[in-house]
Amino acid sequence: MTLKHSSLVSGDCFAAFDTARRPQARRQSHISCYQTLDKATAKQNLRLAVAPTQRGGSASLQQRGVVLEAQIGLEALSETLDYDLLPGLWKLIYTSAPDVAPLTISNGFSDLLPVRIGDIYQEFSSVVLGQVKNIITFRVPGLLESGSIEVRASYAVRSPRRIMLEFREAGIRDLQITDRAEALLAPALLPRSWLSHRALLALREAEVFLPLRAGLPSVFNRASSNLERSFGSEYLLTFLDEDTLIGSQTGTGGTFIFERA
Length: 261
Hints:
It is a single chain. The chain is an alpha+beta fold. It has helices at 5-8, 11-19, 23-34, 39-50, 61-75, 179-185, 194-205, 218-231; strands at residues 88-95, 116-124, 131-140, 144-159, 162-177, 208-211, 234-240, 244-249, 255-260. A hairpin with a 2-residue loop joins strand 4 and strand 5. Helix 2 (11-19) packs antiparallel against helix 3 and helix 4 (39-50) packs antiparallel against helix 5 (61-75). The chain starts with a helix and ends with a strand. Residues 1-7 and 14-23 have low confidence and may be disordered.
């Protein structure tokens, strides 16, 4: 699927953007033009732009440009950030962060294990509690129906648009084994014993969390360390309302776009 400029916004906006010579003038003319859009249209433009990119993992240079233009258009409509809107579960729909983008493709670990990546989330508590979780859901065909990698951090507000993150621990939880794997513990031809039942229950309820510096098995450590590096210690929030969150890491400039789950 190829998105054309005309499918997102009027040609006048792109004409104004393209004819501005200097980079600063280009961005300024782009923002001024987008300020004529309403917020609902700007958000629709952004979602249309990210739709064919596999959350950024397969985005071409042209697609990244279209996403950036739509992102700037929505950010131009941003008002004073209301941190009361931040708590809750947010689902990642796009990232340009080089360490995280490969994880957004469903077989992002295929070079290591047959792991299939599912949805990726960020969950914030209230500002007072100051807790945040980065969550990657996954499955292993034939073995695990589902599971999740969780990276936990604390956060504190440092400015009207900037928060400081401190990553603390990472782990694996919510494991749900397949029928095939369950049959190894409780064969279908034999009565299910109390011991096998307890083993299945313990596996489903198991949680293994370690301090980030302690390390995890390599395949999972790759995911947690990528998230830690990419979200970094400072996180700039460029847009936040009831159903859309846009943030960027300071330093490398990778963007993260979320919708409320």
